[in-house]
Each structure stands twice: as structure tokens, then as C-alpha cells.
Amino acid sequence: MLHTLDPELRRALAERVRFCHEMGIYDFYRRESRVSDPTITAEVDDLPSTSQQQREDEQSEEMAARKSAVVAKAEDTLRVLTTHAEQSVTDPIAALKLIREDLGDCTRCKLHKQGRKQIVFGVGNPRADLMFVGEGPGADEDMQGEPFVGRAGQLLNNMIKAMGIRREDVYIANVVKCRPPGNRTPERDECETCSPFLMRQIAVVKPKVVVALGAVASKSLLAMNASMSELRGRFYDFSPAGARSSDPNWKGTKLAVTYHPAYLLRDPRQKGEAWKDLQMVMKFLGLEPPKKSD
Ligand code: SF4
Q1: pLDDT tens-digit profile of 236-267?
Q2: CA-to-CA distance for 185 and 136, rounded, in angstroms?
Q3: Which is nearest to 96 in space by CA: 207, 243, 171, 204?
Q4: Distance between the two ends of the chain, CA-based, in angstroms?
Q5: What is the pLDDT of residue 35?
Q6: In testing the pocket of ligand 1, which one of 105, 111, 183 has its CB within 8 Å of the most ligand atoms?
Q7: Cross-strand pairs, 236
Q8: Nearest residue CA, atom 8 of ligand 1?
Q9: CA of residue 182 relative to chain centroid, distance
Q10: What is the 271 CA–ligand 1 centroid distance (Å)?
């Protein structure tokens, strides 16, 4: 419950939290500190005369109690201000809808004014065990409002089918939700501005495995600057930065890296390597490739 807190302090906290959100910071930690409250000292000076030791004990107890109260109020306020709406619902469909509403007609980065037709949020099973993350929408995706629907999307569909599952079984999203002009690579500031929404999507879907498609998705999610050959071939423990799941038992997911389907269209020789990555994921999820007759 939110206690009454000095309106000026509440406004200042709200401003600070908003600023942190703009910077992509969502987690806050309290550092233990000695809070001095001049009103406490003034009140203690008015106490009737008693032994020095007794006065010191009483002062110490009262200060501890008031410090706790002040910290509790500030923590309540911070909790309210930093909790995303989707954390209050357990239904992932409703939670994703709340994130989409929060995104709104987004103008947070410059991609909003560089020719996007619409925001491409994400698609698929909101309770998927497997999630694919690409870098950003292309022309077809921008037109249709759905990720991975062009030629690269067709190849991704084939990759999913080869794993023995359907596109509807997985969840698919991108690091940036607006099409970069001319299909250029999204820039770092664009990825950093948009990715908190992706993190929140991951925290809602709670997949067992996230597959990062290509260098932009891999580097954004892992915050590592390494080559694809260095990043592929293993699982990473992954928790979506700054986003919390409504399920306190969910501790994160496994993340694997593979090539982006658009890259595989340009260099089909790498398809075998991508298949190795997917087989690693299949083994983890207990998936079997479809029988030849399927
Ligand atoms: S890319 Fe993301 S942050 Fe940038 S305008 Fe689009 S939705 Fe907003």
C-alpha cells in the first residue's frame, strides 16, 4: 500500500524513475545509509530530563523506527513507479496487450520518423517454450505488421517446421519494432531504446529457450560484442534485463545464437551450421524432427 509521502519528494522520485526508464534502467537497489532527520534531533531535545544513557537509547530506538518508516514509504513509492502494468496480470495475452498499449504510437527513437508504416510488435503463442528474436522489420513486415513474413520469414517457417513444430507454437519478435529505412542495420541507440519492450515480452512469455537470430539480436540480448562464430554453439543463461515476470518462480531462460534467415538466404552454405544450432535447441526441448512421411 502506498503511504502518504511528501508530494514534492514523490514528484522528484517519479521524475528520477522516468529518467531512468528513458535510459533503459528498470531495477533499483537500496544502499544502506545513515539517514539524518533534523526533526528527530529537535524532538529528542524536548524530552524531559533523564539519564544520558536512557536518552541516547530512546533516541536511537526512535531514529531507527522513523528511518524504517521513511525507507518503507520511499520503497513503496519506487515499487509503484517501477512496476510495469503487465506484472499485475497473470494472463500472458492480457500482459502482452498491456505492453503494446504502453508502447503506443511510439516516438521514443528516430525510427518513428524514418518511414515506418506501423509498429511490428510480435506474434505467436504467448505461452511458447521457444521464442525467436530477429533484428527488425523489413518491407513486408512493415506492410503487414507481423515479424518474419517475407522471404526470410518463409525460411524461418521452414526452420521451425524442420524442428517438428509450427510457427503458431513459437513466439516471434524483433529487437526494434519499426523498419529501419532501406533495411539498414538498426543503430545502437535505437536498439537500446526499443529493447526494454522486447525484454518485457520475454518476461511475459517466459520461454524455455530464446533463439537470437543474427548478430544484432545476439549482441543486444547478450550485451556482448563478439563474432557470430564466437557466440554460437552453446547455451547462455538469460534473464531479460530490467523486466520482471509476474511469476516469481521464473528465473530466466536459455539463450542460443544462430544465423539470421536473411543471411542464410545470401549464403545458403551456412544452413548446415544453423541446423546444428537448432538441433541443440531441439535436444534441450525434447523435440523430434518430423518423420519423412509427415
Ligand atoms: S523502434 Fe521501438 S523505440 Fe523506436 S520508435 Fe519504433 S517502437 Fe519506438
Answers
A1: 999 999 898 999 999 999 999 999 999 999 99
A2: 8
A3: 204
A4: 56
A5: 43
A6: 111
A7: 255
A8: 106
A9: 27
A10: 31
Quote the crossing angle between the two packed helices 214-222 and 188-205, to the nearest 10°: 70
- Strand (E) or helix (H) holding 213: strand 209-213
Q: How many residues does the chain have?
A: 294
Q: Which residues line ligand 1 (CB under 6 A)?
A: 103, 106-109, 111-112, 119, 176-178, 190, 193-194
CA distance 200 to 106: 16
Residue found by looking up cell 511528501 in the block: 6
Bridge partners, 213 (sequence order): 258
Q: If you average pLDDT over residues 94-113, what whole number do you get?
A: 97
| Ligand 1 atom with least separation from CA of 103 | 7
In this prediction, residue 43 has a pLDDT band, given cuts at 50, 70 and 90, of very low
Q: Which residue type does 22 have? A: E
SS3 172: strand
CA proximity to 257, closest of 244, 276, 284: 276
| Spatial distance between the Cα atoms of 92 and 223, rounded to a whole number of angstroms | 26
Query: In angstroms, rounded to a whole number, what is the distance separating the alpha carbons of residues 24 and 15?
Result: 14
Q: Which residue has the cell 543503430?
A: 187
> DSSP string covering 191-210, please?
HHHHHHHHHHHHHHH--SEE
Contacts of 265 by beta carbon, 8 Å cutoff, 6+ apart: 151, 152, 155
